[in-house]
Amino acid sequence: MPPPRPPSRRHHGALLALALAGACGPFALAPARAEVFKCAGPQAVPVYQDTPCPPGKELRNFQTDPPPITVLPGPEIAAEPRAPAEPKRGTREVAPAKSTTPAGEAKPGADAAERKFVRPGMSEGEVVARLGRPEVTSRGSKLAAARWTYLPSAGDPDTITTITFANGVVASVERKVSKR
Prior knowledge:
Strand order of the largest sheet: 4-5-6-7
Structural class: alpha+beta
CATH topology of the domain at 112-177: Beta-lactamase Inhibitory Protein, Chain:B, domain 1
Distance between the termini: 112 Å
């Protein structure tokens, strides 16, 4: 009878996997426990820990006496009017005409002289509060920043102010003198 052959590499890997599964099995079956203990620390200051308290130091046992659940009511929100449903594909709808401010008129509530004081770092809200809505806008995208353009008006004649936004913050301000 020939001598027995040594186990091949394939059998060696299978035996190793079987041995590891046997060694890790008891740990995989043990449930994970997460317990919190409230103990009296130095000078009777409450201490929360994950190990049981020493005798006489337990302030609360969360396993036998769990804390009550506190539910705070949310703010009352009035129902907002719903936007009209999207038109079906293939139907055309005429867009309303844009209302533009003529170049010579100032917009109500906006001081055109304030355009000189717009600086990088201001938010869109600050710009709208100071200058009002722009006459011309271009939307930003992932690669391009948003651009607002204010045309000449009575408080800032012969000057076109272009404000570029990046992530809702003024990135640059360009003021060009235009000749009529």
